[in-house]
Amino acid sequence: MDQRDTSFFRRPIPPAAIVLIALVVHAPLLIMQLPTTTTYDANFHIFFASHYAHHWFNPWNEQWFAGFSQTTYPPLGHQWIAILSFIFGLNMAYMLVQLIGVVLLPVGVFRFARLWVSERAASYAALLSVFLGTVAFLVYSAGQLSTTVSAPFYLLALPYFYEWLRWGRGRALAKGVVLTLVAASIHHVTLLFGAILFAAPVLMLAWMDRRAERDGGGLAVLGRAAVFTALSAIGVAIVLLPYWISILQHPIEQVPIPHASRSNFLLNVDYGMNYFIVPYGALILALPFIVIRGASVPRLRPLLIFFWIAFIFGLGGTTPLPRLLLGRAFQILTFERFTLLAALLALPIVGLLVEELLDRAPKLASIGVSIAAIATFALALGWMYFSPFKTIGGMNVDSVVSFLNRDGHDKYRYITLGFGNALPKVSTYTTANSVDGEYNSARLLPEMTQYGAAQLTSAKFFGRAGMESLRAMLKHANRYGLKYIFVHDAYYDPLLAFAGWRKIETFDNGLVTVWSKEDVPPARKIESDAIPAPWEGLLWGILPIGCSFFAILLWLLVPDRVRSLEIVPSSTPAEVPTYAREAH
Amino acid sequence: MISWVAFRRLGLVLFAVLLLARLGPNTAAWAADALPSVQLNADSISPRPIEELTGKNIARDYAYAWQTLAQALDQDRSELLDGYFTGFAKETLSRAVADQKKSGIRVHYIDHGHKVSALFYSPSGDAMQLRDTAQLEVQVLDGDKMVHQEQVALNYLVLMTPAADRWVVRLLETVPGF
Amino acid sequence: MRYLLALLIFAVTLLFVAVGWVTSGGLARAEIRSASTPTEAVQALLADVQSHNWDRAYARLANNKDIDRSAFERDLSGSYRSLRTYSSLEGFDVWPIHAASEQAVVRANLHWSTAVGPIDDVRDLKVEHQGSSWKVDWPSPNLPKVPPQVIPVNYLRWDVINRGPEDDWGEQNVDTPQVRIISMNPVERPDRLIILGEIVNEDTVPAYVNVNATLLDQHNAPMSQEGSFDKISHTLLPKQVSPYRIDFPGIKLKQIKSVRMDAKAMLVPASADPVIEVSGQRMNTDALGKKVLSGELLNESGQPVNIAQTLAVFYDSNGRVIWVSDGYIDQALLPQTPVHFAVDLPDDVAAKVQNYHVTVNHYSSGNS
Amino acid sequence: MRHTFVFFILLLLSELSLTGARAADLHPPKQVTAGNGFSIATTGNGDATFYLVGPSDRAKQTVRLGNAIEVAADDVRTAGRYIATVCGSDGCASSAFYVVAAAPAQLSFLVHPSRVPVSAKDAISAVAFVFDKFHNLVLQPVKVDFNVAVKDAPAISRSLPTNNGVAWIRLNATRKGGPAQVVASIGSISEHRVVQQVASDACNLRIKATRKGNSVAVETETVRDCSGNPVPDGTVVTFTATDAKGKTTVDAPIKRGTARVQMRLTGGATISVASGVAMGNEVRIGGTP
């Protein structure tokens, strides 16, 4: 008879405790609204949400690019922020949605890891996910709300996918598909790569486990996988129909914009630090174990292979593989998100490592692992201040907003120069429209798409391409009603002076100057074939949010078969001593 | 069995649905008003002849002015007047919008077109006086109740002045006859 | 089998990283750093300039004993808030012009990204073989030094008080200045249509001008509108004449029926200083064989002009404007210090040029 | 048969109701002067709602039919067409009337340009719009007196009637530079504007050049227009010199009546001058002594 080990170090950590730890770690940082001042993208997400708060059923947003469709970006995360903003305000609503993401992440990791490893190892994996450098990097530095909120939903869907593949349970199919739709409604790119990097190893696992039970039925697994895939694909096609319409109507054909995550990290130390050392942190030390253990245990091999693919993709241009496999898409994607996917795929094996270390030297290992986890998290947070890549999202733009909103200045369009990611903050609170914007994929104006530069506000950082793009836009100022330019970087002053703009006001002790061109006529609506039809606006306003409500209803009304995932075969090679046995 | 906690959550979800319903599309805002027809005759203008482009712009902008006037009165939104009205005309019409908001009495115009004659174009090109015979259906409503309705040809004396990129109405006065 | 997969993963990863390093230019960078050929020496120097590694760049100079380290840096990174201080070297093309065993001449086309747009700068650099590598013989920087002096200034200035926004219609106001387009000539080039001409401020007050052109098609419908942008002197003092140039890329002359010109002027505060002399204007052929109009600019006032732009208008024998060229000067115009300039023009146009006139636009930080 | 009976009963009832209550009606005056209160006679009996809709006003009050309705002066300040409606138990009746402008009280006086070259013909335009105290355009013809006064010159006066509320005049600029006072008045109401008469293009532009070592000092004579008025300071004069090294140009502003430059010239040179489109003389200067 087995004797149950009651040592604190040999018991799984209760999921509730892990969620509590996630709250303790992340809630204070989010309540402080850290992402609004330190991240690149938080203001962008808040801007999108602000539009939904004012025009829920009209995804055509005239505040950027002289008009663009928000159907080019899945809406669910932004719509939740919009709803919560009525109670908490936009900034805090963003923090709440982000908090939901980081709290759901360990839950998702736990459930995903349970497919591969024991409950105890899975609980360690879940706990470590709270301190992942890549999570801290994406949440507090990159501001990738959509990736970090979508990924947990996808992780939550995977056990249902496995359950459906193994046992063909209808309720698992329903829940898995709905969670997939929710994940897709938050972020399409995570879904696309998640489908390959996460679903494929789970499919292989189900197939292997089914064969291991010697009940045959490999074909049944494949058949069910096809059903799941078909239902998910149809669902995603319907729920995000306006997105597909917009992407088919205007495929991304702009000149590629350089991004540091596509660089070779060996040739630029700062990039290597930013996109490799900081996101992975102490996980780098575990890489040999991940590979060796992943290769040693047949059941873990699918996980290892797809971890390795995600890892290679996360290296951006350091290896030629992503460029070869993705073709033109390589120039559109940014690759920091793959470090998150790689880390999540590695965590089950890292959970095993922690389990073994704790079994061998409980106190030493617990101290060591804790220090490594906290140091990884601290490094990612500390890097925000030591990094050469600084954001200015926290910049005070009140004077700019106030100028635009008074005396009919909002009859004209404006741009900012040197505002970095404070641009969406201006756009969120002003009634005036701009020809610039922060979402590259939605740009249709030729002055922006033909030069290989991103935001006009950061034109100088894109060198000749950026300045050429800015010149092209300024040349067509009269066409777009572009009268006012706010400058937060004197670098742009000479061009404006030579091009016919005059400095008319100064704010914040000279930090921001306002330039105006007097012969510019008031802005007129720019006709576009990208304006979504009213019915698309209705779909966009109903289906994605409806999916999330449906997921909540399913969760509330249809309980899980709790024991279905409890039996997990050993993930320890034969010659590694087993210190704990599975509970049955 | 569904617990009371689940019911509470369900309530929350329903609340959110209702909130969404409140955010529903404003079909009225989607309705597009047609631009009224304006025929401009500048044969008897003096002392300065009207330039061809100016003539086109005057007709276009006067039509837009009537369109925005009708919208402003329909939607009780005086800010719509900013685009094509200025000075005394804007003051007068803004007062009308404020008054109808307060009193609940609204005027609805159905515009059947304008025959406009240009009378005076200042030598320096900074003011133009027009005479307009407008075919209108005027409805006076108290809330939803129509208290007056008429098909009428009204005579307007109009003063337009140039703004940044358009001509705007500075004076719009109904007169008994010309 | 167990370890085979692990080894395979390690090996493939290393292989990919190695291939990535080579294809991303890691190997080439290492080769260039060795400066084993004249071209590599110039490439290495410019790569260091590009990354602002001034110490290493300075160490690559053959004549660094004759050049002050800070003067070398100022030569390439600019001073007095000149255009060069607003520039970064984004790329360069290098090719040998002449090579011998101990000396060579290498031509470098430097692609600068500047605050006013892209600028290319061609330099012929002497390279010497020293020890096992080649080093660049950098031309000694000719940094101007203004002698201490007092320059009396009694310049003219116009200030403007406009009618307040709250004032009634018809209140007294100051009118916008009277400007007049005195010439307009459409010129077709292979890739574009260009509208050239001159505008004069006929008034007695300064004018801030922009010239816009609208092309009308055969049905008199507007087909394209562009403005003079930076190919004009926006601030015109009384009776001052400026050339203007408006480009319409991708349009042919036969597509249009007429052009609607629109000169917008407004009354602005302005100063009559600085006065800039343009001397020694001559038509030449530059090192690349292109026709250029070159000369010198002399700032006659007491304050530096941070960035200057030359606008040259070329006339044919009938006095008609046939071309307008412009060029930005990457050096600041210090008082009483001549600075060279050159603007190019197409060969076919150069053949018809009978006369030309150069005007100078200027930007001084703090005075915009 | 039964339907016919019901129809007749209904017809009878309706006739009885019409004779029992007199229909509401109202009789406003045809025309009212802005800012003057007045009353509207009504017929009928019982309580009714009175609506007054004007260009800027919307008023509603409960009235007693048969009594006159008093309309306050404040309700009819804007000129234009008003609709008076009264709604009683038997329906609504409407009548329209016009409010016309009161006596002239304000002038909007547009004078252009604010600067004019001397001697320019018909260069000054003065347009007067006549308004009452409520900003209504006064359409009744009234006489507007225009008066132009220039220092050291006789004043010009013209009196013109308004047409549709507008009177206008065109004036010549005098030969002498300086401010011209333009006044429009109706009785005690008057508006003043000032037009600056400025020198025209330079005329007989002449330069002299003196060599001083390596440079040549070039100076214009006092720059005047063809009427003898000094061209304002700040006007740009372009000096062009051609010597052995090429062409030298300098744009110099006039200061205290003349423009002067120092040009670095080697050897003999030809120097010319221009201001705007006006050309001046050309001088030749010999080489370095």
Describe the model.
The complex is a heterotetramer of chains A (584), B (178), C (368) and D (289). With 584 residues, chain A is mainly alpha-helical. Chain A contains 25 helices and seven strands. Chain A has two domains: 25-389 and 542-561, no CATH class; 398-516. In chain A, the strands form two sheets. Chain A has a five-stranded mixed beta sheet with strand order 4-3-5-7-6. A two-stranded antiparallel sheet of chain A has the order 1-2. In chain B, 36% of the residues lie in helices and 37% in strands. In chain B, strands 1, 2, 3, 4, 5 and 6 form a six-stranded mixed beta sheet that branches. Chain C is 17% helix and 43% strand. Chain C has a four-stranded antiparallel beta sheet with strand order 1-2-3-4, with helices on one face. In chain C, strands 8, 9, 10 and 12 form a four-stranded antiparallel beta sheet that branches. In chain C, helix 2 crosses helix 3 (38-50). The model of chain C has no long low-confidence stretch (mean pLDDT 90). Chains in contact: A-B, A-C, B-D, C-D. The interface between A and C is large, with 50 and 51 residues.
Structure described in brief:
The complex is a heterotetramer of chains A (584), B (178), C (368) and D (289). Chain A has 584 residues and is mainly alpha-helical.
SSE topology string of chain D: HEEEEEEEEEEEEEEEEEEEEEEEEE
User: The biggest beta sheet of chain A, please?
Assistant: 5 strands, mixed
Q: How much is the average pLDDT of chain D?
A: 86
Please give the alpha-carbon distance between the first and last residues of chain D: 134 Å
β-strand number of chain D: 25
Q: If you compute it from the alpha carbons, what radius of gyration of chain A comes out, rounded to the nearest whole angstrom?
A: 25 Å
Q: Classify the helix fraction of chain D into a percent range.
A: under 10%
If you average the pLDDT of chain A, what whole number results? Answer: 90
Shape of chain D: rod-shaped
CATH class of the largest domain in chain D: Mainly Beta
Q: Biggest β-sheet of chain D, characterized?
A: 5 strands, mixed
What is the straight-line distance between the termini of chain A? Answer: 13 Å
CATH homology superfamily of the largest domain in chain D: Immunoglobulins
Radius of gyration of chain D: 37 Å
| Multimeric status of the protein | heterotetramer
Cross-sheet strand order for the largest sheet of chain D: 2-8-7-4-5
CATH topology-level fold name of the largest domain in chain D: Immunoglobulin-like
